[in-house]
Amino acid sequence: MTGYRQVLAVPGMAPLLGVSLIARTAITADVMALTLFVVLGLKLNYAAAGGVAAALTAGVALGGPLLGRMIDSRGLRLVLLVTVTVQVVFWLSVPVLPYGLLLVASFVAGLLMVPAQALSRQAIAAMTTPEQRRAAFALESVQGELSYIVGPAVVILGAATVSPEVVAWGVGIAILAGGVGIAVLNPPLHAEGEAAAAAAERPPRRQWLSATMIAALIMAFGTTTLLSGVDLAIVATLREAGQVSWAAVVVVVFGVSSVIGGLIYGALNRPLPTWLLLGLLGLVTIPAGLAHDWPWLCVAVVGSGLLTAPTLGRVADAVSRLAPPAVRGEVIGLQSSAQSAGFALGSPLVGVAIDLSAPAGGFAAAGLAGLTAAVTGYLLARRSPARTAVPHHAGPAGLGY
């Protein structure tokens, strides 16, 4: 655990992880909060709720690189001022908006979502040495898993015991608190030795959007496609067994396993290749479909959980190493967009597989999506000319070959 102590001892790191966790927990719960408001508050069906969720997700996917470019050119605080203001106005207005306006407002809110995850990743890359980054990004991925465990659960509990309107206001307040906290901390987004490079003219996109970068983005997309599909496959399996109320327990087991896996991986002396982690994640996901009740499903998802945070952390580390300082915000924004697109595609992809076969087919489809992304990323990175210029132990720009 020495690596973690060194990372947390970096000035400003522990407060940054703390305030970004607040924002990320609220942002993770935003889709659930809107879904419950549409269903319970507006008394509409789940299809209508899905439309609002899709609008928000589409906005997030499109807004990632745009906000990243703004961060590169205008700085952290201006971007936070704009996005926090938009989020406060949106979440305060949710309870009074008719459905049509809520659709439009959700897209705008997604487009200008507080980039807490992207900013924390960019700051981690700037505040740590190359030797510390694997442990640092492991902590960041564990932080993400904690937000997925806590955020939706708190929203569901609040909607059931108080009201969906109050929950919407609570989400807005939490995003405000996290965004303001990051602005007050104002973490550096470039290391000391990168100041000149960051101030230089932006390199052309064709220079940094190489085959190796595309490989990393494809693997980011494949990882979240798999994870989104697994969530739906869990629900489908337990619904068929008449045990859907136990889905929350299985999801918590999955999340806790991911936290444990992330902490173990970050403490290892030698990293594993990105493609290998994702490929293993895909492989261990497929046989989870053999479980047909909640106790066995809890056991079956442990393997996938142990590999989830390490894979997410490794992808984030690879992207940060590949990104030139002058465009790091845009590149990390692209990673966020790729992951948002994966989350959006995973559920319908696995849903089709389940409809055409059985819940076990959902796990198979999710696992194959991860395997396909891993193989594609491996082949693209192997063909990249940049590979020859990178030290042998690191592989192409830190992808681990």
Automatic annotation (TrEMBL):
Main localization (coarse): membrane
Transmembrane annotation, as ranges: 46-68, 75-93, 99-116, 137-160, 166-187, 208-238, 244-265, 272-288, 360-381
Alphabetically ordered keywords of this record: Membrane, Transmembrane, Transmembrane helix
Superkingdom of origin organism: Bacteria
Xref: InterPro entries: MFS (IPR011701), MFS_dom (IPR020846), MFS_trans_sf (IPR036259)
Keyword Aminoacyl-tRNA synthetase: no
A molecular function (GO) term: transmembrane transporter activity
Gene3D superfamilies assigned: MFS general substrate transporter like domains
Membrane topology designation: Multi-pass membrane protein
Annotated ranges, domain Major facilitator superfamily (MFS) profile: 167-401
GO cellular component annotations of the record: plasma membrane
Pfam families given in the database record: MFS_1 (PF07690)
Protein's cellular compartments: Cell membrane
Family annotation (PANTHER family): MAJOR FACILITATOR SUPERFAMILY (MFS) PROFILE DOMAIN-CONTAINING PROTEIN, PTHR23542
Protein name (database record): Putative MFS family arabinose efflux permease
Species name: Micromonospora taraxaci
